[in-house]
Amino acid sequence: MEKCLAGEGLSCGGSTMVEAVRDPKSRVVGLKQTLRALQQDRVSVVYLANDVDEHIRRKISTACAERGVELKPAGMGQRELGAFCGIEVGAAVLAVLRS
Question: What residue ranges define each of the domains in the chain, with the CATH number in brackets?
Fold first, then answer.
């Protein structure tokens, strides 16, 4: 049974965030990898955990604005976002890559 999440961009039935998590080739997880992918113009949307520090929020917000990439709230904290992505540590950001 599919796990449905209630948060912006997380509903069942084809959300880009849910699809990205299912296919690891279509996403990158973490600040460094996301910033690198943004520099390479490979990102379509970025999801930000609710509980990130302000300096991380500013850094990713600036990078997204420079590239014209939408930044959305993940609707969960770092620990939950990491688990949602299938990693054992917290994740501040999840970037969905362009197809």
Answer: 16-97 (3.30.1330.30)
